[in-house]
Design a protein that fits this description.
With 166 residues, the protein is α+β, with helices and mostly antiparallel strands. It has helices spanning 12-28, 34-42, 93-107, 122-127, 138-141, and strands spanning 2-7, 47-54, 60-71, 76-84, 112-118, 151-157. Strands 1-2-3-4-5-6 form a 6-stranded mixed sheet, with helices on both faces. The chain has one domain (2-157): 3-Layer(aba) Sandwich (Aminopeptidase), CATH 3.40.630. Bound molecules: acetyl coenzyme *A (ACO). Acetyl coenzyme *A (ACO) is lined by residues 28-29, 79, 81-84, 89-95, 115, 117-118, 120-121, 123-124, 127.
Length: 166
């Protein structure tokens, strides 16, 4: 398996990976409107950490990923979608994907990750170091993040001294 950061830079390879990721999200997050998922995944302000697996025919298949928007000035990222394909869940990939995402956002100089977690994903996010207690000053995220019914706003504080991949 391989983890990589992918943005919509109009390159064919990036677009193919983002398309594969969009399909995983649509399948794993059935409550999310498909056009909304597509719009954010291909949005140029968003980027994604993508997990691919090499098949026997030496093709890379997208097994999951995490799509987020880095707010560079406010120094936080908001995770929009995160999912691992059905057949690959509960094998530790979700944990590795989050570690990779933390390392990437840390490298961008960000200090926090926020997400509106589906209520059933709250235990997963807790295991990844997210908390329901938001310490990021409201002025930094207000207006960017909409909290709504059925989701829980959660936060992870990034420690610049920690190597999340080790
Ligand atoms: N409820 C409780 N515990 C969970 C859940 C859950 N829904 N999902 C995973 N866990 C636990 C696992 O049992 C494991 O526990 P352990 O460390 O004690 O063994 C731990 O979380 C991590 O498991 P991984 O194998 O690393 O995670 P996995 O590869 O299964 O990925 C994920 C987790 C991404 C949540 C996956 O289950 C998934 O794609 N679910 C469907 C889509 C989804 O709900 N996405 C999040 C929506 S919220 C949002 O997108 C902002």
């Amino acid at each position: 398996v391989k983890f990589q950061v992918v943005r919509n830079d109009s390159k064919r390879e990036s677009l193919m990976l983002l398309l594969g990721l969009k399909n995983v999200f649509v399948r794993q997050l059935p409550n999310m409107p498909k056009p909304y998922v597509t719009r954010l995944v291909f949005d140029r302000k968003h980027e994604s950490t993508i997990l691919t697996k090499c098949t026997s025919s030496r093709e890379y298949v997208v097994m999951g990923g995490c799509c987020y928007r880095p707010f560079l000035e406010e120094r936080f990222a908001e995770i929009a979608f995160l999912a691992i394909s059905d057949s690959e869940q509960v094998r530790g990939y979700g944990t590795r994907l989050m570690a990779y995402t933390k390392e990437r956002t840390k490298e961008l100089g960000l200090t926090h990750i926020l997400t509106c977690a589906d209520n059933n994903a709250v235990p997963y996010f807790k295991k990844q170091g997210f908390s329901k207690t938001i310490t990021l000053e409201k002025e930094r995220w207000q207006g960017y993040i909409k909290d709504y019914d059925g989701v829980t706003l959660m936060e992870c504080v990034l420690n610049p001294k920690v190597d999340y991949l080790n």
